[in-house]
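note to self: dont lose this again. the chain is below, predicted strucutre after it. 358 aa total, dont forget to put it in the shared folder this time
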Amino acid sequence: MPAIRRLYLAFLVVTLFTTAGFCQNMPQVAPIPSDSLELVTGATRVPDTPQERSRALDLVERARQNSDLSTPGGPAYMLKVNFTASGNVQFTGSGEMEETWIAPYVFRWSARLGDFELTRIAVRGAVLDDKPTEFIPMRVHMLRDALFWPVSFNPADALIRTAKAQWKGSEVTCILTSGGMSDATPTPGRRWVEREFCVDTKTGLLQVLSDAPGIYVVYDYANPHHFHGRVLADKISIVEGGKTVLEANLVSIADADPNNTNVLTPTPEMRNSGPVLSYTMRFPQVIHVAPGASIIQPVIVHALLGPDGKVLDAELVENSGAALTQSALDLVRRSVYVRANNGRLQREAFINVQFVSE
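---
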C-alpha cells in the first residue's frame, strides 16, 4: 500500500474516533452578513440523483459557455470595455481594457487604470509586454475574471446545493458549490465556504456571481451585445460590502480578422511578460484566540499574491469597522503563503480568516 494512502487511512481512523467528542464542544459559525444581493437566504436542496445533479450542472455549463469567449475553436474577436474602479486598493479611477483574441495564446491585450498601463502580446509561443511590470492591479484582475471566466470550478469534485430565488422579476436558480468534504445537508441559507452562481432558469444567463459572501458581480442585460450566439451583458458591477467598487461597460465586441497580423506584431522594445494572471483561489486561515469565544467569526479578505507567496495588495470584503476585521486584514498583509509553481504567477485569493477559541 503506498505510504500516502496509509497516511490518509490513518487520518480517517483518528477522525472517526475523535469527531463525536469534538462536535459536542465545537463552537457555532457566525451567519454570513446580510446583503440585498445575497439571494440564497431560505431553503436549499442537495441534488441526490444523477438527473437532478445533471440539471443543475447543465444550467451552470450553459452560463459558462455563453460567457467563455476564449473557447478553443471559437470566433476571433475585438473587445473594448470602459470601467471605473474605487476602494481601498492600489490603482483606482477611470480605466479601459481592450483585447483582440485570435486563438489560445494568440492575442493582444491592453489595460489602463490610473497610472498603470500595459500592453501584452502573445504570439509564436512567446508572451511579451511593452514595459517591465511586477504588479497588475487588483481591479484589473477582477474585471478580467468577470468578463472572461466567471464560471470556473471543477464539477466532478464539488458538493452542489441549489435554491430558487427571484431576481428582477424572473426566477433564478442559484447553484452553491464547495469542496467534496462539505456537509451535504440542505441547511437553509448560504455557507461561508460556498461560491454562488445565480442563473436565469429560462435564458441560462448568469445574473449574479459571488466568489465569497459579501462580494457580488452583477450582470445587466438591459442592452445586451449579441456575438455568435452569445448574449453578453452591457454592464457589469462588482459590489463589496454594499459598496460598488467596479462598474464596467462593454463598449463593443466585433469579429477580428485572423489574417491581420499587424496587431500581433511586437515592437522592438517589447520583452518577456511580467506577471501571469491566474484563476481565483479560495482557502481558509485559522487564527486561535483566547478561550471563551463560543462562535467562530469568519472574515473574508480579498488579496493578490505574488509568485513568492507574499501579499501584493489586500482589502476587506465586508468592512464593519470592528477590531476583528482590521486584525484579519493586518494578519493577511503580514502573511506569506504557498509559492506558485510558475515563477511569474500572480494569484487572486479570497482568504477566509477564522478566529477560533483555543
